[in-house]
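(Structure overview)
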Amino acid sequence: MTQADLSVAVALDRSSLAKIENGSRRVSALELARIARAVNERIEWFFRPAPPAVISHRNLQEPGAASPAIDRLIERVARNVEFVIERGRRAWSDTPALTRPGTVAQAEDTAARARALLGADPSGPVSALVDRMAAQGLFAFSFDLGADAADAASLLLREGGVAIVNGARHVGRRRLALAHEFGHFLFADEYTVDWRIAEQDGVEGWESRLDRFARAFLLPEAGLREEFRRLTNEGTDLRTIAVKVGSFYQVDMATLARRMVEIGLISVSDARLVRSVRTGKADIVELNLVVKHELQPPCLPNPYVKSVLSLYRGSEVSAARAIDLLLDTWTEDELPQVPELPEKAIWEFVS
């Protein structure tokens, strides 16, 4: 918005608004309420310190490009998560810290350690990523941000971290994006963002190792080799192998092809075939595939939702505030019934 647009929206002349902005004029509570509504922010946004304003982005379509939609959303989510942690008065898991891998071999090793942290089978698919990661302190949310937004972003908080995944992507790409952000979460020994890491480490070096970590996290080498060997021995053609393995591990074909090449299962020419595979309705029926919708938007971590409902049941937040904390994915009718409070309770209430 321009200053002129905002002055009209809040019924203040432009000179008064300019004085408010430069600190030479006080602002009344009602004026601030109108300004907050006009810029679509809660009033405490003007008073509470912002979460650490350093985030990592995953933007495959346009690497390095800004993504204001995901930046704005992750700030809102971060503020909400910090509020819930603070008001909930419960101890969240300490953020596990893994040493940043300096080689491809170390990326493979840390991927195995990350799977172990989540309690995943060493060689099988890792499912329920959102709730498993929440148990380790990373709260992942998925919203449809459209084709032009980044795939994902993450941000470290004073306790734990948050990640936003663009739900407009297909399930395999959503899972890969979250695995990538989980790597940022695990390896960040201080607040970092991709371009800063690139300056220190060379963008291809660090980002390629982080991508290798994400692929190894979703497609463990031993399990992938065993599955490929079993299907090959059954006489299964490469296209069907790709469809079955991609469905089993819930990955997209580009990720599967890259992984199969890097561990020496297929040639580069075969990888082109795998990348071209599209799983159709006939495949789902004839191959008895189970269709999964992990990170289907909107998606919120269950531990976070339960904490919000606990605050509401305990009459610590209003219905309107609970809906805001749930990022408008619930309606007031869907909230649990709570007993009516006495009038004096208003002084302990967070609206």
Remarks:
- The mean pLDDT is 86.
- The chain has 16 helices and four strands.
- Strands lie at 55-58, 138-143, 152-156, 161-166.
- The chain has three domains: 3-46, 55-218, 221-286.
